[in-house]
Amino acid sequence: MDDLTWKAKLEARSSRQKREYFLAFCIVFLLLGSVCWYVFIYMRSPDYALHTIQEAIEHQDTVTFSRYVNLDEFTSRAYDDMAAALFKDDTKLTGDDKITYERFYRAIKPQMANGMGQMILNYISTGEWKYPDGEDILKGHQLGIDFERFIVLSQLPNTGFVKFGNITQRKDYATAEIIIMDKATQNQCSLEVTIRPAEDGHWQLVSMSNYRQYLTGIMALHNKDIASYLEATKDITNEYNQL
Asked: How far is it, in rounded angstroms, from Cα 126 to Cα 138?
């Protein structure tokens, strides 16, 4: 083998090694970039928070759920919307009676909101909606209200997750659409939730901005279904009442 051929082979081998080193560098750079993006950007995004909440529910992980949901603020706001929705269409309450009931609902808010939060956590850990028992003040009517009925009207046990919708991120908060389904009527609705960054940078779900409107609409649908059922079975009911 002459010198020219030998040098050509050496140069070809060197060139091939440089290409291999460059390709390996590019792969490592892309992998490191992907890891950095995932850890320092995506994990500190509202989209990651929402999907982590969904996974926490699926895996019955209350610790992770509590990290990405500010449950105290969430249940506090939900309780206010719930109480407002109940009073909105109650034409029987007027004047002093309405003021009295509104004061009563404000007075029991800490216990009721905390009870809602505990029921949510119990559901995540067990997959079942369990109502207060034992010596819990929310059991029965000890607090002066039917807590079980309140939870039923909140639609929590009757609501199923469908999918996530659009997420809009702003400077210090984000809003997202969550498509849900009312199990009783099979109607799908869009809840708009608010997500905010916590002190350490991860995002937390804090509230539902249109929860009150959702409750009002669902209650109307349920009442319509009940009225339709009663009308459809009126003749059968009258027949049996005459026996």
From this structure: 20
Task: Tell me the chain's radius of gyration from C-alpha atoms.
Answer: 29
- C-alpha to C-alpha distance for 187 and 155, rounded to whole angstroms: 13
Instruction: Find tokens 């119990």 and name the residue.
Output: 122
Q: What are phi and psi of 142, to 5 degrees?
A: -60, -30
Tokens representing 129 are: 């909606």
- Spacing of C-alpha 129 from chain mean position: 16
The answer to whether residues 177 and 187 touch, using CB atoms and an 8 Å cutoff, is no
For the cut 60, the answer to whether the pLDDT of residue 236 exceeds it is: no
Tell me what pLDDT residue 243 has: 47
Q: How would you class 193 by CB atoms within 10 Å of its CB: exposed for 0-12, middle for 13-18, buried for 19 or more? A: buried
What DSSP assignment string belongs to 154-198? HTSTTEEEEEEEEEEE-SS-EEEEEEEEETTTTEEEEEEEEEEE-
Residue with tokens 């059968």: 236
Question: How confident is the model over 33-58, as pLDDT tens digits?
Answer: 555 544 556 678 899 999 999 999 99
pLDDT band of residue 239 (cuts 50, 70, 90) is: very low
User: Contacts for 213-216 with beta carbons within 8 Å, 24 or more apart?
Assistant: 214/155, 214/189, 215/81, 215/82, 215/85, 215/153, 215/154, 215/155, 216/85, 216/88, 216/89
C-beta separation of 161 from 124 below 8 A:
no
Question: From the CB of residue 180, how many other CB atoms can be counted at a distance below 10 Å?
Answer: 18
